[in-house]
């Protein structure tokens, strides 16, 4: 067995308690250890992608119990890609949090951050639905701590709401698992896929209930229409670097829908055929509309970005909802893009807020010290998010639209994406001009003396603070530049994802890489 | 017995949902605790209800057995929900101390970014 598969879970799991217990009084030591851990995770993730690129679905059996009885971790192209995305985002966000001093505004930032990375990596790697629940809880409990990091009145209240909605979601997840186990007798993803093929339509009522419950649970995580209401409040009140890391949390929900509802309940399963599309497609359309309206109506920068995240999740789920290989490929490209675009926006917002005394209201105030630099960074991240060329958002939306050409789909999908993009562009243009352009026309405040100048110099973003944002924008540009090779990899990923028989054979068969 | 278990799950779930919808910290915590009890009992029932049966296969004949997997799932679920409830209590307490309000829903002030006087919350 290839033991590297479990390394993305083990490494943060071991590092986090060490940081939490041994380095709790020494922030510099904790920073070094945490950054080193993130770099190591990135190296491991790169190694896993190289291994998975061959196309073989590798299985890691915990305790060496054979598949339907023991828990397995499964490494295929999709898992490897998601772990790499997590590691890359984690490293950049951690660098930003360290450079801006966010990690020192409360206790245990680095330990919680590592636990969060552990939960996310585990959720992407596991091949067992109950184990997916456990990793969900790990990443959630770490996210509760990160969400209220730094404290403050609004943040604590938003944190409480976030905890409550997620606990309710976890309860629903358990109900879904109970129904699923009662109707199929297994919780292993491969075994589920195998057994669902044989369930006749007249006995499928319970399975359909279980599938819809799971869809709702994952939709809560992915912030889809009926259950999207928690996202703007949580993301806009979380510390900005944490909100940037949370950009991958919605993708955990999206990944779960992609994995479970393709491999287990996917196309060709008679019991649940077409059910996911009927609900996901309209939900995704409405999510785009809510996101666009929120971007236009937001009066603060952080809610504006949170609603933009909502809109991007709608676009992503629109591509996923048809459960067809071409659309899934486009959806995966958009998934990678929107993660970095959202994170870059949150990090820029953090730098801007630091120079505006923590105020992110979209109101005209005296120009900040690095107005030009911040405006350029915001412009770059905003055109990526809104889907303008030359960054990858344009290509992502183009691919999604190109894939959604089926009659009955094309009208709604194209209208939603195009109108949503237009409204989002208007919203971002308005926010950018209020924040950066209008402020230059204001005369500097008359009391500007020595003290505010010191203030400005102290608040000015240094190279280390700007680098993570620049790196993310660079990644977005690279996504656009190397879209061809990446699309090739993603096409192979989708091929593997829809190859249900291959997945089942790799997990349950005897040739699992002993 | 099916009737008793089913109604227990139903009553616990209904009570839990009602309490969660109260949207104040203490009832919501109690409601989520009741929901987690409901789901624990429900998970037991997922393994089919049998009494006085061992959770292992017998090699001495065709004796029936009770499914051990739901019991393992319930154990995990209990541990997780217990820990989560503890976290929720602490977050709710910190939120109450910070804001003098035990409401779960965010007020109208959160989008406007305007400070709200303590005490104004209760009037909403």
UniProtKB/TrEMBL annotation, chain A:
Q: Does the keyword Methyltransferase apply?
A: no
Which Gene Ontology BP terms does the record give?
Answer: ATP synthesis coupled electron transport
What UniProt keywords are attached to this protein's entry? Answer: Cell membrane, Membrane, Transmembrane, Transmembrane helix
Q: Name one GO molecular function term.
A: NADH dehydrogenase (ubiquinone) activity
The UniProt record lists the keyword Transmembrane: yes
A single GO CC term for this protein reads: plasma membrane
List where in the cell it is found. Answer: Cell membrane; Membrane
Question: Where does the NADH:quinone oxidoreductase/Mrp antiporter transmembrane domain lie?
Answer: 127-420
Q: Where are the transmembrane segments?
A: 6-25, 32-54, 74-97, 109-126, 132-150, 162-184, 204-227, 239-259, 279-297, 304-326, 332-354, 366-389, 409-429, 466-490
Q: Tell me the membrane topology, using the record's own terms.
A: Multi-pass membrane protein
The function of this protein is: NDH-1 shuttles electrons from NADH, via FMN and iron-sulfur (Fe-S) centers, to quinones in the respiratory chain. The immediate electron acceptor for the enzyme in this species is believed to be ubiquinone. Couples the redox reaction to proton translocation (for every two electrons transferred, four hydrogen ions are translocated across the cytoplasmic membrane), and thus conserves the redox energy in a proton gradient.
Instruction: Tell me its family.
Output: Belongs to the CPA3 antiporters (TC 2.A.63) subunit D family.
Protein name (record): Monovalent cation/H+ antiporter subunit D
The scientific name of the source species is Salibaculum griseiflavum
UniProtKB/TrEMBL annotation, chain B:
What Gene3D superfamilies is this protein classified in?
Answer: 1.10.287.3510
Q: Which residues cross the membrane?
A: 26-51, 72-97
Where, per UniProt, does this protein localize?
Cell membrane
Q: Name one GO cellular component term.
A: plasma membrane
Which superkingdom does the taxonomy of this entry point to? Answer: Bacteria
Primary localisation category: membrane
Membrane topology note: Multi-pass membrane protein
Instruction: Please state which protein family the record places this protein in.
Output: Belongs to the CPA3 antiporters (TC 2.A.63) subunit C family.
Which PANTHER family is this protein grouped with?
Answer: ANTIPORTER SUBUNIT MNHC2-RELATED
Among NCBIfam families, the record links this protein to:
PRK09094.1
Q: What is this protein called?
A: Na+/H+ antiporter subunit C
Source species: Salibaculum griseiflavum
Taxonomic lineage per UniProt?
A: Bacteria, Pseudomonadati, Pseudomonadota, Alphaproteobacteria, Rhodobacterales
């Amino acid at each position: 067995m290839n033991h590297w598969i479990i390394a993305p879970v083990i490494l943060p799991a071991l590092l986090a308690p060490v940081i939490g217990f041994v380095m709790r009084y020494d922030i510099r030591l904790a920073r070094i250890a945490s950054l080193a851990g993130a770099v190591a995770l990135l190296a491991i993730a790169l190694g896993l992608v190289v291994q998975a690129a061959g196309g073989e679905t590798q299985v890691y059996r915990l305790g060496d119990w054979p598949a339907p009885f023991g828990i397995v971790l499964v490494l295929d192209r999709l898992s490897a890609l998601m772990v790499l995305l997590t590691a890359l985002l984690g490293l950049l966000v951690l660098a930003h949090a360290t450079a801006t001093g966010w990690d020192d505004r409360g206790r245990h930032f680095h330990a919680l951050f590592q636990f969060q990375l552990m939960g996310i990596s585990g959720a992407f790697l596991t091949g067992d639905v109950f184990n997916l629940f456990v990793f969900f809880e790990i990443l959630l409990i770490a996210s509760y701590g990160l969400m209220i990091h730094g404290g403050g009145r609004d943040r604590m209240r938003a944190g409480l709401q976030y905890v409550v909605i997620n606990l309710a979601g976890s309860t629903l997840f358990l109900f879904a698992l109970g129904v699923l186990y009662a109707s199929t007798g297994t919780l292993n993803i491969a075994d589920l896929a195998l057994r669902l093929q044989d369930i006749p339509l007249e006995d499928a009522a319970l399975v359909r209930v279980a599938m819809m419950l799971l869809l709702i649970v994952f939709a809560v995580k992915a912030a889809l229409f009926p259950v999207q209401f928690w996202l703007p409040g949580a993301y806009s009140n979380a510390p900005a670097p944490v909100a940037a890391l949370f950009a991958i949390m919605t993708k955990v929900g999206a990944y779960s829908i992609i994995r479970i509802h393709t491999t287990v309940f996917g196309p060709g399963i008679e019991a649940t055929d077409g059910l996911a599309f009927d609900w996901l497609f309209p939900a995704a359309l409405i999510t785009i509309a809510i996101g666009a309206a929120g971007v236009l109506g937001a009066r603060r920068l952080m809610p504006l970005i949170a609603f933009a995240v909502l809109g991007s999740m709608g676009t992503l789920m629109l591509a996923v909802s048809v459960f067809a290989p071409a659309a899934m490929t486009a959806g995966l490209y958009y998934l990678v893009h929107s993660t970095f675009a959202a994170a870059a926006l949150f990090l820029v917002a953090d730098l801007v807020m630091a120079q505006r005394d923590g105020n992110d209201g979209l109101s005209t105030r005296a120009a900040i010290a690095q107005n030009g630099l911040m405006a350029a960074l915001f412009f770059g991240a905003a055109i990526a998010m809104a889907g303008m060329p030359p960054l990858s958002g344009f290509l992502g939306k183009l691919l999604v639209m190109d894939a959604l050409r089926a009659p009955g789909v094309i009208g709604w999908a194209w209208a939603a994406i195009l109108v949503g993009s237009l409204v989002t562009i208007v919203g971002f243009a308005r926010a950018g001009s209020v924040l950066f352009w209008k402020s230059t026309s204001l005369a500097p405040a008359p009391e500007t003396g020595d003290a505010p100048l010191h203030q400005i110099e102290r608040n000015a973003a240094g190279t280390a603070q700007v680098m993570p944002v620049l790196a993310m924008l660079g990644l977005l540009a690279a996504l656009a530049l190397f879209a061809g090779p990446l699309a090739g990899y993603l096409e192979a990923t989708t091929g593997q994802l829809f190859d249900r028989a291959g997945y089942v054979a790799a997990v349950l068969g005897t040739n699992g890489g002993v | 017995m099916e009737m008793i278990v089913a109604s227990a799950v139903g009553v616990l779930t209904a009570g839990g949902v009602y309490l969660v919808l109260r949207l104040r910290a203490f009832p919501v915590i109690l409601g989520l605790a009741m929901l987690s009890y409901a789901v624990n009992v429900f998970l037991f029932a997922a393994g089919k209800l049998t009494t006085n049966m061992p959770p292992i296969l017998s090699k001495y004949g065709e004796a029936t057995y009770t499914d051990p997997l739901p019991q393992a799932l319930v154990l995990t679920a209990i541990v997780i929900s217990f820990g989560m409830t503890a976290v929720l209590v602490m977050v709710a307490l910190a939120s109450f101390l910070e804001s003098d309000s035990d409401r779960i829903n965010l007020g109208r002030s959160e989008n406007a970014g305007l400070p709200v006087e303590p005490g104004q919350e209760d009037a909403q």
